[in-house]
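COURSE: Structural Biology Practicum
ASSIGNMENT: Worksheet 4, Part C
STUDENT ID: 0417
INSTRUCTIONS: Below are two proteins. For each, the amino acid sequence is given first, followed by its structure token string. Answer the questions at the end about the second protein only.

PROTEIN I
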Amino acid sequence: MSSTPAGVKAPAAELFPFLDLKAQFATIHPEIMEATRRVLASQHFIMGPEVVAFENEVAAFIGAEHAISCASGSDALLLALMAVGVSAGDEVITTPFTFVATAGAILRLGANPVFVDIDPFTYNIDPQKIESAITHRTKAIMPVHLFGLAAEMDSIQAVATNHKLPVIEDAAQAIGAVYRGRNVGTIGEFGCFSFFPSKNLGGAGDGGLITTNDAKLAEHLRMIRMHGSRKKYHYELLGINSRLDAMQAAILRVKLRYLNDWAEARRRNADDYRELFAAFDLADDVSVPATDNGHVYNQFVIRVRQRDALREHLHDHGIPTEVYYPSPLHLEPAFSMLSYRRGDLPRSEEAATEVLALPIYPELMHEQRRAVVNAISTFYRTL
């Protein structure tokens, strides 16, 4: 018997998932199973050789001198802030158009996030607005490489250098992204990465990483993530418990070998979307991301009028979508103590009402992308 109320249309079954991790797993199943078998046979689950090997391999991939793994991307941000001495009463400049962890890590230390509005085309922090937000309390700048596209790091670094401020790159969505020949995570003092399963390099649970080219900061981070200890039962500072499990490290080592190929497939899918939108003559209705060879497309985000109505139309036609993000952080109740008001950061507020993410995973077929764009075209033809 149907559970749908009388007179209410049943939701359409999705034609395909928004993200198909099963399709990815099918291509690397034997390697993943061998990696997990190896860890189980060792019975070494916390830190150890798998974690060290992964840190070395991912550091080489990113091009950083040091990579320090931790329990999550959120902890990566927290650890980086702790390492530069952010504490109660300090300020950290960042963007409101991001996942909550970016600003949450700042508040967790008793510091205040100072939100700067975004560039309306890249959705990343607008470097031209950073200088005016700096005060004597500013302790760091935290740009986000949103959706897999690098922020405008040269301009950000110039401001940071002028004011002697460290830059913490939130690269949670952008592993492998490149900015003017440099990998994200190697430009500021720290790069912070997430291995949440939906990321381009995703684990079988939570996981995170911090990169740095500063040996002293790297050693400081290694102590902070281990309760402030360099030697067992001896504590040099107050730290936290934030370590990457060996099982996650082993799985991530397998996936890291495929990451460049997966990123290239995402770029091809993005190019195909752009060609399809042009073929369906949707330029006046849909803004698509500009071509950027350094983009790794953790999300493919379009900008449209009547976003919510379009999303409902796509849902009714079995097309999965997501909204990143439906509300900028400065308007969220968790940040109400900062006293921001609607209208303070208009570009972020407007973007939150118009952005829509389409499926972009490497295994997505041309016919599926065409179905997405055809359904969008149908919506605008009927207006």
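PROTEIN II
(use this one for the questions)
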Amino acid sequence: MKSYREAVKPLDAKRTKVVVASPFLFLRGLLKKNQSEKISFAGQNCFWRSEGAFTGEISPAMLRQLGAEYVILGHSERRKFMGESDEMINGKLKAALKERLKVILCLGETDSPEQNSKGYFELKKGLQEGLKDIKASNLGDIIVAYEPVWAISTNPGARPDSPDNALSSILYLRKLLGEMYSRPLALKTKILYGGSVNSKNIKDYFCQEAVDGVLAGGASLNGSEAIKMLEHISEC
């Protein structure tokens, strides 16, 4: 089986960036071993303060000192199980930007399209409140990940969103960004799709011009599956 380093070699570093979001415990070791400019690392979460008496929390300053370049914020599991609100996520986002981390902001509706009467409302609320008071000059350090909760592989009955529906939601988010900031900035902002992405369907999303990448979860934990996904995106 190929190694990750071999799998990323065909990728154009100017067009494609691979970001590994490791549990905090393993970040230091992975960063020491990584020798590829095509692989960066992210924290799976951070706190909204860089210092203080907040036992057990990981600050954005800690992530930055380790060498992480990115942090994932607003993942649906943290919203659901840890009770994170858009206000809390907004505070974390501001703290992460202050420490010069790039933020992957997760957004997604709760119910599937068949049951959904408020999907775009949820997306609009999440985007507007998540980016509250964020300046246009900071938008280049923010990546939006459209991740419908019902499509995430760890949820019962999960299935990937259809490429057409995912594209519609991503275009809606880009339209909102244009209204909040400007159309040129909205077009430059990277928007990913996440939700039951695997080697069999990754090209359905990654190869679409309006989709800037994918946020892969469960499938990325399988080494051979992760390498297959890397091989497939190099074909786009």
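ANSWER KEY EXCERPT:
Q1: The chain has one domain: 4-111+119-233.
Q2: The radius of gyration is 17 Å.
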